Amino acid sequence: MRKSIHSYGINILKIEIKNLIKQILKINSKPTRDRDYINEIYEKIRNEKFENLDSFSSPKDYFFDIPATYADGGIRYSLLNNKLVEGEANQVNFMILEIIEDIMRDTSCENVIELGSGGGKNLLWFASKYKNIKFIGLELNKTSVDLANAAAKKFDIQNVEFYECDLTKTETYKKFLTKNTFVYSHHTLEEMPRIFKIPLNEIKKSDVQVVALLEPIYMFSFSRIILDLAKRLRILNRDRLIGLKKFSKRKLSKHFNIKLVDLGLGVKPENPTTLLLLKR
Ligand SMILES: C[S@@+](CC[C@H](N)C(=O)[O-])C[C@H]1O[C@@H](n2cnc3c(N)ncnc32)[C@H](O)[C@@H]1O
Question: What is the CATH number of the domain that holds 188?
Answer without folding.
Answer: 3.40.50.150
